[in-house]
From TrEMBL:
One of its GO terms (biological process) is methylation. One of its GO terms (molecular function) is S-adenosylmethionine-dependent methyltransferase activity. Residues 247-347 form the Methyltransferase type domain. CDD domains: AdoMet_MTases. Its main location: plastid. The keyword Protein transport does not apply. This is Methyltransferase type 11 domain-containing protein.
């Protein structure tokens, strides 16, 4: 109900006019639909002088005639001296009795308006206490849904202004930085742990800064086709899940996250990485590229082996040039399989195992020794195409397919 009433003496309500609208049923609604152009009698203007508080405009999708205004204000004014800050709704209803000359549906609307008008701070308190259960985010400890307090939306401003809490273990998560930290270690003050060197390397501010300034471009020497072509190849795989939620895991500086978000092909894009500095770099690129801050793009810090999403909640997952850096690719793809919806698609790129990057361990007879010597000899895990297919199938993904160009491979699997 607006704080400024229109000059017309007619009132209309979309619920009343549309017989198919939700809640448009029952005797009262039928009566209202039949009389939605009823002219309401005016009340004395003295009530308007006694009560001047506006009625918040968000309350109902209504347009009320000027003759309704005195009735609402009269009821509110007559209750303004009530001892409690929130007089009972029944008291307001009595002030708007049959003597007001309003029909029953109109009195119901006026009662609600007067009740809102008596608490001018209700709109602010409602916004501040906007608490809801998120549809996607889950606790990385117990995988229970997170309760969100703050403005809705899967965009940077909304996520930054929101607080999250596990509905089971009560662990809290905040976005004090430019990203939402949903790691198990989030909020810990004393405990700290280090990941393998290949993971810690990308947490470096220097590497994060250089990643799109020459580092990633060197991948074309191994057959990587380049950002635009890789993006289009991934989009082809994701055609069946267009319009859904996409998570770009190990997103780095957001090289592909930003393209997925700006494409408009997905309802939400979540750029996820374990590196704090990579996520900060992604945020800087978003500002530089003048990407609208209300774009459905969220920055989340998380562990690929402990994804903070509810099971069967994600439509698409992309991992660009990442699997060779993961501490445990099998655990990671098992997690990806868990969070994908039935029919969800996983697409990834990586380097195939070659004599250049794997040495003698690329020879089939010597592959078993890689588990013993590999961690000492190399910082990365490189696999053959057969190993990648076996890994996807063993984690429950079907419809495996791949495209190979020299040591570059893009492969895909689908959740049955």
């Amino acid at each position: 109900i607006g704080s400024c009433f229109p000059s017309s003496h007619l009132w209309t309500c979309k619920k009343y006019q549309d017989p198919t609208a939700k809640g448009a049923s029952g005797r009262g609604w039928r009566h209202a639909r039949a009389r939605h152009h009823h002219t309401l009698p005016p009340l004395p203007e003295l009530a308007k002088e006694r009560f001047q508080a506006p009625v918040p405009a968000y309350y109902c999708n209504l347009q009320l005639g000027a003759s309704m205004e005195p009735a609402v204000r009269a009821a509110a004014a007559s209750c303004s001296s009530y001892p409690s800050l929130h007089p009972p709704r029944a008291l307001v209803a009595r002030r708007l009795g049959r003597s007001s000359g309003l029909s029953l549906p109109a009195r119901r609307v006026a009662v609600a308006a007067a009740a809102i008008a008596l608490d001018p701070f209700q709109e602010t308190k409602t916004e501040q206490n906007d608490t809801s259960e998120t549809e996607v985010f889950a606790c990385p400890v117990c995988y229970e849904p997170l309760i969100r307090k703050g403005p809705p939306g899967m965009n940077l401003p909304a996520i930054y202004r929101s607080g999250f809490k596990c509905s089971k273990c009560n662990k809290s998560f905040t976005s004090k930085d430019v990203f939402l930290d949903l790691t198990v270690t989030s909020g810990m003050k004393e405990y700290s742990e280090l990941k393998p060197a290949r993971t810690e390397l990308f947490r470096s501010p220097l590497v994060s800064y250089l990643y799109e300034r020459g580092w990633r471009q060197n991948f074309n020497r191994s057959g990587f086709p380049g950002r635009d072509e890789e993006f289009q190849m991934a989009q082809d795989y994701f055609q069946s899940v267009a319009g859904g939620i996409l998570v770009d895991v190990s997103c780095g500086s957001g090289l592909f996250s930003r393209k997925f978000a700006s494409s408009g092909a997905y309802s939400s894009v979540i750029a996820l990485d374990f590196s704090e500095n990579m996520l900060r770099q992604c945020y800087d690129y978003i500002k530089q590229e003048e990407t609208p801050m209300n774009t459905n793009l969220a920055l989340v810090r998380a562990d690929i082996s402990r994804l903070p999403f509810a099971s069967c909640s994600i439509d698409a997952i992309h991992a660009g040039a990442a699997i060779h850096c993961w501490p445990s690719p099998s655990n990671a793809i098992a997690e990806i399989s868990r969070v994908l919806k039935p029919g969800g698609v996983f697409v990834a790129t990586t380097f195939l195992s070659t004599p250049t990057n794997s040495g003698l361990f690329s020879i089939d007879a010597l592959k078993p020794l890689r588990q013993i010597v590999g961690p000492v000899n190399s910082s990365y895990n490189f696999f053959t195409e057969g190993e990648l297919e076996d890994l996807c199938r063993s984690c429950g993904l079907v419809n495996y397919s791949s495209k190979v160009q020299r040591s570059f491979i893009m492969f895909s699997g689908q959740k049955p």
